[in-house]
Amino acid sequence: DHPDFAEYVDYDSTMAEKSMAPTDVVQYLLSTCATVDDVREAIDQILVVNVVEPVIGKTALYHLMVSDPSGEQIVIEWLQGKPKIFDAELGIITNAPTYDWHINNLRNYVNISPVACPDRNIGSINFSPLGFGSGMIGLPGDFTPPSRFIRAFAFSQTARATTDGPETIYELFRILDNFNVPLGPPEESEDEYINTSGMRSATLWTTAYDLTNKVIYYHTQHNRQVRKIDVGSLDFETIRDMQASPLDIVKEQNIEDRTPGKLKVSS
Questions:
Q1: pLDDT averaged over the chain?
Q2: Higher confidence at residue 18 or residue 2?
Q3: Is residue 12 part of a domain?
Q4: pTM of the model
Q5: pLDDT in tens, 76-131
Q6: Is residue 22 classed exposed, middle or buried when 0-12, 13-18 and 19+ CB atoms within 10 A define those classes?
Q7: Based on the domain organization, do 84 and 2 belong to the same domain?
């Protein structure tokens, strides 16, 4: 979501063959591109045009981060009707404003460090940090996009080193747990089309991608058990039609009963 900043061109029937709605761009890129370099070329072959989405009553305003198995990453934003591509070496993205603004804003937080602040002696008094984490004093804790970008940078730069896909996924979900946005009172919503009935969080789902093994992992607002889709095992030559299934079969949390006498252990 890139509100107030994403801009697309109006539809021109003479350019129909290369025009598409914002909501079609992801499918277009995934079905035609294998690498980030492919995406750079493909983006220049299309026009993303204003198309009102019936569900929200307006054009969906997007920006994208694209990654490939080599580790190369880019951010694509549509500014003044044209795509602008940024190299995304940090591997993070939030929402508004523009990506380059977020990068410049990082300069306000160059003091952030995983290393604790040293003790200071002032006169005859020694002042030492109160507990662990003093190097992160000043890290913003709110849920605005600029603050989330700073936190994402800090947490990604201090992530533990991992050696395989599963361990990396564990670490990624640990980091992403810091970004669950509370639902808040319904009357505070600025978007009239949002129906919060049945919602438990403003973060509807959380997704992690293992690009090496081609596996998608996710959990949802209703069930934090991690589930996976093994894309690498699919035979796309035999899949002719688009398929869809709900993220949650049952919108309830899986809870294991560990009460003594109820736990069943299989031999």
A1: 90
A2: 18
A3: yes
A4: 0.87
A5: 999 999 999 999 999 999 999 999 999 999 999 988 888 888 888 999 999 888 87
A6: buried
A7: yes
Domain total for the chain? 2
Domain hosting 169: range is 159-247
- Checking if the pLDDT of 234 tops 70, the result is yes
Residue 146 covered by a domain: no
Task: Work out the burial of residue 118: count CB atoms within 10 Å of its CB; fewer than 13 is exposed, 13-18 middle, 19 or more buried.
Answer: exposed
Residue 64's pLDDT is: 96
**Final residue before a domain boundary, out of 89, 119, 148:** 89
Q: Residues 242-254: what's their mean pLDDT?
A: 91
Q: Are 84 and 164 part of one and the same domain?
A: no
How high is the pLDDT of residue 186? 53
How much is the average pLDDT of 194-217? 88
Which distant-in-sequence residues (6+ apart) come within 8 Å of 118 by Cβ?
A: none
